[in-house]
From TrEMBL:
This is Maleylacetate reductase. Gene3D superfamilies: 3.40.50.1970, Dehydroquinate synthase-like - alpha domain. GO terms for molecular function: alcohol dehydrogenase (NAD+) activity; maleylacetate reductase activity; metal ion binding. SUPFAM superfamilies: Dehydroquinate synthase-like (SSF56796). Residues 22-174 form the Alcohol dehydrogenase iron-type/glycerol dehydrogenase GldA domain. Residues 185-365 form the Fe-containing alcohol dehydrogenase-like C-terminal domain.
């Protein structure tokens, strides 16, 4: 039986439990120049650099800051951390005797660094190693603020939580995300927005995650509107990274619920693009769940500048040009119905029945405005 969550997850007497994750955030334009000093302060000796294709120049700059500490480089990463790639990266970390990895890029680069930190062997049952992760994010996935890892093999995607994969230092430099194409920007922001919105209704949601979620949505929605007009504006890019940081922390503490679990099922089974899937599904899950968390709903609406959270999210994504239907992402109507059948109930403010999931996915498939 799914465990229902009290509205707003308020516990008797207003009590709550919140775990702050350890980590250091260095934020600001030009902070890429500080990566070498941050690494030095960690006391590590051999540093492997992972860089997404678009971050080659940034990786060159970091490599020269590292001097003798530079142990090797992996250029190019793939979404969802394929095990084959993770194994190659672990081997490289082993042969270069790396005790730290710097990931420069989006969630895929951070994900590969986490896979190395999780285990230096090819067995996922191993405990995390002492290898230190430093993240330099260039998208808004928020993965750099979480201890969540994921890896994909022929049998699907396996995910887990391990403090050993949590980046010890995160360097947010808005200059690096200035060139992120608007389409990728908007989809990545939708991913971060989903972390904020879902963080108010998961079983572990609390007033601190709600505060991060509301402030995160404020920054993300304002930043997204601003980059549409001025894609290279550093203030707007900074707002988006700040929002992503808060969204990631909210996700890290509140965990995932109905929305993320649906997106993972769709992504894992039908190979849908991760960030875009969030934009199609979130407004529909919000339409069902938001009335059950009225206080958080009102605060998120104020942050977004709307009186209807679900419709406001749909309009935000549409105005930014992100597909708001699963049909546009290549899913068939029959697959949407199949996914509704396959979905396993999860704790949620309103009971998760097959009928509820069918309605969410059928509206998300068609892209119906809430
Ligand atoms: P991504 O890292 O694959 O990046 C998306 C695209 O943007 C890629 O083509 C990349 O090369 C390009 N790119 C990145 N930075 C760029 C820049 N500055 N300029 C130009 N192009 C740039 O995608 P993502 O959306 O950042 O991350 C998705 C992955 O992260 C998924 O695998 C998802 O499961 C994972 N994720 C994990 C967590 C977690 O907590 N573990 C949270 C969110 C997402």
């Amino acid at each position: 039986m799914p465990r229902p969550v009290e509205p707003d997850a308020v516990q008797p007497g207003g009590g709550f439990v919140h775990t702050f994750l350890p980590g250091r955030v260095v934020f600001g334009a030009g902070t890429l120049d500080r990566v070498g000093a941050e690494v030095e302060a960690l006391g590590v000796r051999r540093v492997l650099v992972i860089a997404t294709k678009s971050a080659r120049a940034a990786a060159d700059a970091v490599e020269s800051q590292l001097g003798d500490r530079f142990a090797g480089r992996i250029d190019g990463v793939t979404q969802h951390v394929p095990t084959e790639l993770a194994d190659q990266a672990r081997t490289k970390a082993h042969t270069t005797q790396a005790d730290a990895v710097i990931a420069i890029g989006g969630g895929s680069a951070t994900g590969l660094a986490k896979a190395i930190a999780l285990t230096s062997t090819t067995s996922l049952s191993q405990q995390s190693t002492d290898l230190v992760v430093v993240a330099v994010p260039t998208t808004y996935s928020g993965s750099e603020m979480t201890a969540v890892w994921g890896e994909t093999s022929g049998e699907g995607k396996v995910t887990g939580v391990d403090l050993g994969v949590l980046p010890r230092v995160v360097v947010y430099d808005p200059v690096l995300s200035r060139g992120l194409p608007l389409g990728v920007t908007a989809a990545s922001v939708a991913n971060a927005v989903a972390h904020c919105v879902e963080a108010v209704w998961t079983p572990k949601a609390d007033p601190i995650t709600e505060m991060a979620a509301v402030e995160g949505l404020l920054a993300l929605s304002a930043g997204l509107r601003e980059v549409q007009a001025a894609p290279e504006d550093l203030d707007a890019r900074g707002k988006l990274l700040y929002g992503a940081c808060l969204a990631g922390s909210a996700l890290a503490a509140a965990g995932t619920g109905l929305h993320h679990k649906l997106c993972h099922l769709l992504g894992g089974t039908y190979n849908l693009p991760h960030a875009e899937t969030h934009a199609a599904v979130l407004p529909q899950v919000t339409r069902m769940n938001a009335p059950a968390v009225p206080q958080a709903k009102a605060r998120l609406e104020a942050a977004l500048g709307t009186t209807d959270l679900a419709a406001g999210l749909f309009d935000l994504f549409q105005a930014a040009g992100v597909p708001t239907s699963l049909r546009e992402l290549g899913l068939t109507e029959a697959q949407a119905a199949e996914a509704a059948k396959a979905f396993r109930p999860t704790a949620n403010p309103v009971p998760v029945t097959e009928e509820l999931v069918r309605e969410i996915l059928s509206r998300a498939w068609a892209g119906t405005r809430p």
